[in-house]
Amino acid sequence: MTTAALEPRAGRRCHNMLNTLHAASYFAPELGTELAALGITHPRAVNFAVRAAALGPVGAGAVTATFYNYKHDLVARHVPAVWAIASPEDVLAARARAVDATLRRLLGEEALASPEMAEAARLALRAAEACSRSARPLYSAHADLPVPEEPHLAYFHATTLLREHRGDGHLAVLVSAGLDGLEAVVTHTATGKGMTPKWVCATRGWTREDWDAASGRLRERGLVDGAGGLTPQGVALREEIESETDRLDRAPYEHLGVEGVARLTELGAGFARAVAGAGAFPGDLIGKG
């Protein structure tokens, strides 16, 4: 019996649906409330703490390296100082409480208790069984954490594993392509699918001067034009980057299989539409700006 082959972009489409729900947690007021109760109040400190906590009380260098597109000066203003305010263990517990409250608000109690949520958790966790730890620090650190018992928290945990697995591989591809953190963001924004320059500068620590300098370097390479759009060479490079990221991230979705990926994508899309429809994201977050 011949096993059906996974379509090349099937994993990417599934990841995009799962990542929408995961990303909603970073914009949720519940996260700020829970971290503020620990004494962590600056929005950037909150972001660095919750995403890096699985790594332990690391320094700024580790966060800059694994996050990739944040300016090191911004990271160093908050890390490792944040660990003197709250331990990584306390931050992880606060994140779990925030995610629980956020999903209850955005999806509702009925969705959290539904058979579909339990099914999505099972499928996503099954896919994550085939993730690789090699050269994937953020994924590997999160893989050391226990799987929550509640289906909606287990689903969020699985989306985190799959997100960070793809993300770690994506960074390797960006390095191979010769794009530094800000150049990678500029080219992504130029596709119309990334964050606007306003949000990049507000959350990543870059200035408009930094942005313009990165754009200048990309123009010299023939990747962006004078208006900040991608040239044909730039479009080809972005397509190559995404295709190579797909290749490095293929194992979890091959492990799940064609039918499993299709079903997880369907379930994930439903939850993604629900959180987006409930106002999980700022209206001006995505676009060329």
Characterization of the model:
This protein is mostly helical and 289 residues long. The protein contains 17 helices and no strands. The radius of gyration is 19 Å and the shape is globular.
Name some characteristics of this structure.
289 residues; mainly alpha; 17 helices
Order of helices and strands: HHHHHHHHHHHHHHHHH
| Derived structural class | mainly alpha
Biggest sheet layout: none
On the 0 to 100 scale, the average pLDDT is: 97
Strand content: under 5%
**What's the β-strand tally?**
0
Which term fits the overall shape? globular
The unreliable regions are none
Rg over CA atoms, rounded to whole Å, is: 19 Å
Helix content: 55-70%
Tally of contiguous helical segments: 17
Distance between the termini: 51 Å
Concise summary:
The protein is 70% helix and 0% strand. It contains 17 helices and no strands.
Write the layout of secondary structure elements.
Elements: H1 10-24, H2 29-38, H3 43-52, H4 60-67, H5 72-78, H6 81-85, H7 88-107, H8 109-112, H9 115-128, H10 137-143, H11 151-176, H12 181-190, H13 197-204, H14 208-220, H15 232-248, H16 250-256, H17 258-277
Helix pairs in contact: 1-11, 1-17, 2-7, 4-5, 9-11, 9-16, 9-17, 10-11, 11-15, 12-14
